[in-house]
Prior knowledge:
By secondary structure, this protein is mainly β. It has 2 helices and 53 strands.
Amino acid sequence: MKNLWQNINIFSWGLLGATLVLQPTSAQAQYIQRSFLNPSFESPVFGSAGQQCYVQVSPSLIPGWETTHGSVKAGTGNCTGYTSPGTVPLIEIWTSGFSGASTATTPTSAGNQFAELNAEQSSELYQNLCLIKNETITFSLLHRGRSSATVADVANFLIGANTVFGRFSTTSNGTVTAQPVAQNGATIPTVTNNNAGNGWVRYTGTVPYTGTSGNQPVGFAAVSTAGGNNTVGNFLDEVQFAGKPVVEFTTSSGGAAESETTPTSNPPKLRIVGLVPTGGISVPISVSGTAVLGTDYDTTSHTSTFNITIPAGNYDGSDATSVFTIPFTVINNNVPQGVRTIVFTIQTSTSFFASSTTTCGASPINASSYTIYDDDFLSGRVWNDADNSANGTFTNINTGSETGTNAGGLLNAILVDSNNKVLKTTTVAADGTYTFLDVPLNQNNVKILLSTTAGTVGNTPPTASLPANWVNTSPLTTAAFDTGTSISSKDFGIEQLPNTTDLTAVSQTNPGGTATVQVTTLAGTDPEDGALGSGKKFKIVTLPTNGTLTYNNVAVTAGQIISSYNPTLLKLDPQDGAITVSFTYAAIDAASKEDPTPATVTMPFVTPANVLLVKRITAINGDRTKNPNDNTPLNAFVDDTTSTRQADDNNANWKSGYLLGAIDGGKVKPGDEIEYTIYFLNAGSSNANTVRVCDRISANQSFKGSAYGTSKDIQLQLGTSTVLDLTSANDTSDRAQLISAGGTVPTNCYLKATNDNGTLVIDVTGNTGVPTLTTMPGSTAQGSPNNSYGFLRFITKVKP
Length: 800
C-alpha cells in the first residue's frame, strides 16, 4: 500500500515513513471520519502481479470513496478477473505502466494504483468527513495530466457541493501551466514542475473551515482536460485531507472487584478517530473521585495527572485498532472499604479535539468513572468433599486434600435477607470461590444458599439444588448470620456420585452340583476416587434368581454392603444347565455415596461338551456297497444294540442319513483291504476345545499307506466341507500321525491295550490343515452347525 504520510511531510507534521493505513470495515460506519481512507486507491488490488491494466468499477468496490459520476455507460476494463459492473456510477482505477510508461507510471514510491477523475465524464471523487467549525485542515494530493505535455488537465479541490478551495493545472510531463489557485481563505504554496517524478506534481495546503460542524463531502472535481475530451484526463494519487484527530472515552463508566489489580474487565478506554502525525500525540488525563491515590489505586506517574501517548496512524475508530486502555493499577487489600470511584477526565490540548467519535460535532464522553468494589466483605468456597469429612455439617469440610469446584460451571451462590428475598446473587468460580460485591452493612439474619438457578435481586430465591450426579456433604443453606463485619469462609461441601460398570462374563461351562465359580470382578469409576475395584466398597442390590451368591463362603443378602472388596471371595453357585445368571450391584465412593443407578452382572453358562464317536466298516476292497467276498451289505448303518454306546449311535443331533457302515464286515481273507470310518459329533451345548481320536490297529491287520493316493493315507472331513487328505508320518506336518508298534502314544489317548500293532492319532481340532478348526462347536440342531460333526477314514490290510 502507498505511503500516505509522504504527501504531508512538507507541513512539518513529521509523519512516519511506515504507517498504519486503516481501511473501512463493516463496523466503521458507527464512527465519524476525520481523514481520507484508502488515500492511494490501493485497495482492492486489481489485476495479476505486474499486470498493466485499468478498470471502471462501482464506488462500492473502492473503500472510502464516492463519486458524482453518472450512470452513463457500462464499465469496462482489462485487468485479469475483471467483471463489468454494468451501467452504474463509475470510478476508474489504473495500475502503474498501463498505456505506456510515459503516460501511466505512478509517482516515485507511490504504490501501484491511481485514479482517473474523467472516467466517462467530468466528475468528482470525494469522501464524507466530519468537519468542525473554525478548524484548519491540511491537505495533500498528487495530480498529473494524461494526454498532453503542453496543455494541462485541470481539477478543483472543494468542500461541499461547490465551495472551491484550490485549482490545479498539470500536464502529462509534470509541467505546471499555472500555479495553484487558492480560494476561500485556503493557503497553497507554489510548486515546481514534476516535483514528484514521472510527470506527477504534489500540491499541498491548508483550508480554514468556517461552516457548521457536521459531515461534508470533501473531494476533487475535474474542470477540463488537455484535449477537451471529458473521458480522458486528470490522474489523482496519494490524496489526503485531515484535521486534528478526535478523542473521547469509549464509555462513561466501568468497574470491577479490587482483586483485579490490573483492570481488564471493563477499564476506561480512549477512542481516537483521524490522522495522528509522526511522533504521535499526548492526551493529558487527570484523576479525581472518592478513591484515594496511593491507597486504593496508582497511576503510571504516581500523581493525579498523566499522559496517554497515541502513536502515529490513520485511525478509523474501530475497537480493533483505535482504542487505548488507560493504564492504572488497583491496590488490593483485606480491609473492608466499601465502594470507591476513580474519575478519569480528558484535559484540553492543541493536538486533538475532545469531541464525539460517533456523532459529528456532538459533545464527547469527556470523563469515565471506574468503580472499585470491595471484594473482601462476604465470601466463601465450595469444596469437592470427596471423603465426606463434612458429614452433614459446615465444619471440617476442607481437610487438606479437597479442591474447590463449581460443579461444571452450574452453581450460583445466593445471599438471602431476613424477609427471604434475594439480596445478592453471583456465580461460583471454577475454583469454587464466590464473592458478594457491595453487600450492605448491618443486615441481620441473612443466609447463603447454593442453587443451579441464579437468583433475582428482590425476588424469592430459587430452591437450593445441585447439578445432576452431585450430592451435598454439608447443608446447601447456611444458618442465619449478620453482615455487621467482614465475613469470609462461608464454605460448602459437595461431591460427585460414583458410576457402576455393567459386566458380562465370558460364557463358561456350568460346573454343576454345588460347585462355585468366581464372579467377574466388580468395577466402577468415581470422578474424585478414580477406578473402583478391589479394596473398594460395593453394595449387592438384588440377588440372582437362579443361583446363590456367597462372599467368603457366606450367603450374600440383598442390600449387603461389601467393604474392602476382595474379588476372589465373591462366588456363585449357578443352577445346573445352560442358563444365564444375573444380579445388580452399586459402587460406593470414599464419601460413602452410592450410585443411584445400579449396574448388572451377567454370567452365561453352558453345559459341557459331549463328543460322540461311532466306528464302522464302510468298504471291503474298495467296495462301499457290499463285501465282494460274501455280499455282506456295507451301505446301510447297522445299530450296535449290544454296546453300551448305543445311545451315541442314535443321538438326535446326528445329521440325518449321515452314519453308514457295518459292525461286522463279513468274510475276509489275507490281503483284503478293510476301510474304517470313525464318525464324531459334539452333542453338547459348549465348545469342545481339544478333540483327539486315538485308534489302535487290530492285531491281525496292518495299516495301508497311500490308500487314497500318493501320501494320502487318511481322510478327514468336517461337516460337509471338502475332504482333507492327511499323511500318517510321525511328525507335525498335519493333524494325523501313526505311532508305530511299541511307540509311545500321547498320555490322553487312554488305550485299553498296549500299542503292539501301531496306533493312529488324529487331532480333529488341530491348527494344521485347511479348514482350520481350533475348537469344535456344540451342536444346536440336527447337522448344525456344519463343523460340529465329521468323520475320518483309513484302510488296513488283513495279514497273511
